């Protein structure tokens, strides 16, 4: 076999390399085709459509940046964008924060049976389909016959309008989201915790560090790469929130709990403004990229990589 | 008066007992080394003294107070871990200052102690680096620095040199010996390297399967090992062992029928131990035993001769180096009677301390 340097100098499709190159391309073809059909194609189509007026029935017509200009005056868009950001902030904070805390609490010395029982219990909701979960919570959240209000009633709290009040609806969605996803964050954080050497904790004990101080000054810094990963994944997920809201409140009351993706769906498939829906999709993509980039940039200041 | 007392200290993990009734007293300022084969419980015992491992039974007293339930930080101990366990996200300075800050020392005092330790260990230029950016030897120094600044009454080292290369190990060993002269504290040092044990220790504690086999100065252990285990564990190359028969008149008879003086006492089968450096090549008529040469290792100043007796017993002799011996030749050995060690069938040393020539 010739050396790699020679192969490179000769070019991929030179006579001596052609066979290997073709074999290589064949190997990656399935993944490449999948990517082209399901990712690159739709993305390109979205970009093109965002410059069109298209109602699914008549032929698309080119409108330039009109769809983007329309966004500026669209009060509903800003409302759902605000909802989505609100949801993202609290759902991400809740999932990651609570996930890490649960992971730490369940990573201490305790009976293995209890430990695994708790971990399984917290992780279980991640395994169940979101629609199932949302349907069940829809019942739990009911004002008059819901279980939650029943128990609140037992301790003397007036029934709460979980889903029908504009003030509470989004919070209810956040509660459901945390219940559903915190187990996954806990699992990832547990893996991160278990990769931290026990010796650091022994050293901290010899140094006289309290468990709280050890958590803040040893565990959290060493877990920071895991936390950054969780923040990023959860943020990307949160911006796409859709099914749970559809089942719980269908975006209501009014637009009080409508998310950006719901709005895109509504614009595209109910109002048949495919061009406008595509433009908003690009907005969502842009926001996600920017937020993720900011998280990574800020993480240079707090995340510690060994 | 001793400063550290271990009284009947035991440790069990479930049904498995790993430390079995340790009795030990260590005077203040002594350098004590725990040695023993892997898994004998050295680290466990050290961690029990540190307070990192709860003890299952017995009493640990440090400086006159029962320490069984005290947290490590309350025991006035500092520990250097085998992995160093430097906090990876903190600079050397912060690593060293962490415990002091918790202890509530003011900034000036912390700074003074860290700077002093850094100067002593020659790590001043490392103070603002994180462990990732240091070599193994430098991390080792910072880890020692972290233990020094706390000014403990008791230093605990768990195999601190095992991650260093050979040259650095020798150098650091010497520095730890110097450190002991400077600091006013007791040191307990765990190793399975008997050279470290012999060179550093005021007293060595030989552990085996959670029990103390013998406690003594390096020379005591070398000259009068209390049993077969210590005899074979201390000394390199290992002591040679031969089966002998003890006869009534305090005589032992070896393989060639040669009689040698043995401690008076019970008769019967016993084990004779002779260190490689005590075996001397000689003429056949003076020989205690004969063996066929297997191979030699020339080390310049001396050579190691590996040979096998007619009964299939392997032996090692350490001789002044010289021209190679003929391959497969029969060699004859004798030894000075006072350099012989006798062990009874139970493995314990027979007779009083037969002071060897070495
Ligand atoms: N958490 C534990 N649970 C059960 N057994 C343990 C535990 N920790 C240690 N042991 C056992 O205790 C014994 C002593 O272990 P220890 O680590 O003290 O050995 P050591 O002498 O330090 O060995 P090494 O030289 O290899 O470091 C071993 O047999 C080990 O398997
Ligand atoms: Mg050990």
UniProtKB/TrEMBL annotation, chain A:
The record's Gene Ontology biological-process terms are: transmembrane transport
Q: Which InterPro entries match?
A: ABC_transporter_permease, MetI-like, MetI-like_sf
Instruction: State the membrane topology.
Output: Multi-pass membrane protein
Lineage top rank: taxon:
Bacteria
Q: What is its main location?
A: membrane
Domain (ABC transmembrane type-1) spans 81-295
Residues forming coiled coils: none
Where it sits in the cell: the answer is: Cell membrane
What parts of the sequence cross the membrane?
25-52, 85-106, 118-140, 169-193, 214-233, 276-298
In terms of CDD domains, this protein maps to: TM_PBP2
Any Pfam family the entry gives = BPD_transp_1
GO cellular component entries:
plasma membrane
Q: Which UniProt keywords apply?
A: Cell membrane, Membrane, Transmembrane, Transmembrane helix, Transport
> What PANTHER family does the record point to?
ABC TRANSPORTER PERMEASE PROTEIN, INNER MEMBRANE ABC TRANSPORTER PERMEASE PROTEIN YCJO
Give the similarity note: Belongs to the binding-protein-dependent transport system permease family.
Its name, as the record gives it, is ABC transmembrane type-1 domain-containing protein
Q: Which organism is it from?
A: Sinorhizobium glycinis
From TrEMBL, chain B:
For this protein, the record's Pfam families field holds: ABC_tran, TOBE_2
Q: Does the keyword Oxidoreductase apply?
A: no
Question: By its UniProt entry, which InterPro entries does this protein fall under?
Answer: AAA+_ATPase, ABC_transporter-like_ATP-bd, ABC_transporter-like_CS, ABC_transpr_MalK-like, ABC_transpr_MalK/UgpC-like, Mo/tungstate-bd_C_term_dom, NA-bd_OB-fold, P-loop_NTPase
Where is this chain's protein located in or outside the cell? Cell inner membrane
Domain of life, source organism: Bacteria
What are the UniProt keywords, alphabetically?
A: ATP-binding, Nucleotide-binding, Transport
- Give the way it sits in the membrane: Peripheral membrane protein
| SUPFAM superfamilies per record | MOP-like (SSF50331), P-loop containing nucleoside triphosphate hydrolases (SSF52540)
Which CDD domains does the record match to this protein? ABC_MalK_N (cd03301)
Q: Which residues form the ABC transporter domain?
A: 4-234
> Is Iron-sulfur included in the keywords of this UniProt record?
no
Q: List, alphabetically, the GO terms of the cellular component aspect.
A: ATP-binding cassette (ABC) transporter complex, substrate-binding subunit-containing; maltose transport complex
Main localization (coarse):
membrane
Gene Ontology MF annotations? ABC-type maltose transporter activity; ATP binding; ATP hydrolysis activity
**Its family?**
Belongs to the ABC transporter superfamily.
The record's section on PANTHER family has: MALTODEXTRIN IMPORT ATP-BINDING PROTEIN MSMX, MALTOSE_MALTODEXTRIN IMPORT ATP-BINDING PROTEIN MALK
NCBIfam families of this UniProt entry? PRK11650.1
- Name-wise, this protein is ABC transporter domain-containing protein
Q: What is the source species?
A: Sinorhizobium glycinis
């Amino acid at each position: 076999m010739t050396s790699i340097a020679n192969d490179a100098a000769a070019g991929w499709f030179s006579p001596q390399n052609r066979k290997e190159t073709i074999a290589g391309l064949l190997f990656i073809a399935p993944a490449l085709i999948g990517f082209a059909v399901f990712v690159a194609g739709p993305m390109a189509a979205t970009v093109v459509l965002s410059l069109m007026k298209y109602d699914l029935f008549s032929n698309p017509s080119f409108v330039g940046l009109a769809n983007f200009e329309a966004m500026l005056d669209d009060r509903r868009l800003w409302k759902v964008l605000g909802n989505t950001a609100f949801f993202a902030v609290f759902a991400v904070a809740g999932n990651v924060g609570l996930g890490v805390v649960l992971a730490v609490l369940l990573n201490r010395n305790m009976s293995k049976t209890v430990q695994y029982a708790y971990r399984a219990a917290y992780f279980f909701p991640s395994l169940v389909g979101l629609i199932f979960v949302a349907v069940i919570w829809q019942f739990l959240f009911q004002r008059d016959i819901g279980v939650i209000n029943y128990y609140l009633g037992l301790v003397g709290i007036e029934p709460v309008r979980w889903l029908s009040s504009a003030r509470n609806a989004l919070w209810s969605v956040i509660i459901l989201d945390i219940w559903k996803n915190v187990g996954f964050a806990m699992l990832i954080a547990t893996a991160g915790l278990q990769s931290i050497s026990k010796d650091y904790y022994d050293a901290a004990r010899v140094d006289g560090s309290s468990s709280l101080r050890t958590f803040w000054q040893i565990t959290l810094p060493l877990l920071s790469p895991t936390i950054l990963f969780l923040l990023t994944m959860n943020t990307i997920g949160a911006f796409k929130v859709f099914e749970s809201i559809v089942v719980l409140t269908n975006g209501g009351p009014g637009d009080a709990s409508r998310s950006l993706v719901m709005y895109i769906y509504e614009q595209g498939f109910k109002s048949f403004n495919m061009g406008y829906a595509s433009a908003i999709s690009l907005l969502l993509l842009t926001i996600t990229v920017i937020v993720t980039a900011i998280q990574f940039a800020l993480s240079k200041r707090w995340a510690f990589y060994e | 008066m001793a400063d550290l007392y271990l009284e009947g200290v035991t440790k069990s993990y479930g049904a498995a007992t790993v430390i079995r009734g340790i009795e030990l007293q260590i005077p203040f300022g002594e350098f004590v080394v725990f040695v023993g084969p892997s898994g004998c419980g050295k680290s466990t015992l050290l961690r029990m003294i540190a307070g990192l491992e709860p003890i299952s039974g017995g009493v640990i007293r440090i400086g006159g107070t029962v320490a069984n339930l005290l947290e490590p930080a309350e025991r006035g101990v500092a520990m250097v871990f085998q992995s160093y366990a430097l906090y990876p996200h903190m600079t050397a300075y912060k690593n060293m200052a962490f415990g002091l800050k918790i202890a509530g020392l003011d900034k000036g005092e912390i700074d003074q102690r860290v700077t002093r330790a850094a100067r002593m260990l020659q790590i001043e230029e490392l103070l603002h680096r994180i462990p990732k950016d240091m070599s193994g030897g430098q991390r080792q120094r910072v880890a020692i620095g972290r233990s020094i600044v706390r000014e403990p009454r008791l230093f605990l080292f768990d195999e601190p040199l095992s991650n260093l290369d050979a040259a650095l190990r020798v150098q650091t060993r010497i520095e730890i010996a110097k450190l002991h002269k400077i600091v006013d504290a007791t040191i307990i040092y765990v190793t399975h390297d008997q050279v470290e044990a012999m060179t550093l220790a005021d007293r060595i504690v030989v552990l085996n399967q959670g029990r103390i086999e013998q406690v003594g100065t390096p020379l005591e252990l070398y000259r009068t090992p209390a049993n077969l285990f210590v005899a074979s564990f201390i000394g390199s190359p290992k002591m040679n062992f031969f089966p002998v028969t003890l006869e009534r008149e305090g005589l032992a008879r070896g393989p060639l029928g040669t009689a040698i003086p043995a401690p008076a006492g019970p008769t019967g089968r016993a084990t004779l131990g002779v260190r490689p450096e005590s075996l001397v090549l000689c003429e056949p008529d003076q020989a205690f035993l004969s063996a066929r040469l297997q191979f030699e290792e020339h080390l310049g100043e001396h050579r190691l001769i590996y040979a096998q007796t007619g009964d299939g017993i392997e032996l090692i002799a350490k001789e002044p180096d010289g021209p190679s011996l003929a391959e497969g030749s029969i060699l004859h050995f004798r030894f000075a009677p006072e350099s012989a060690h006798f062990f009874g069938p139970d493995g314990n040393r027979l007779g009083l301390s037969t002071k060897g020539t070495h």
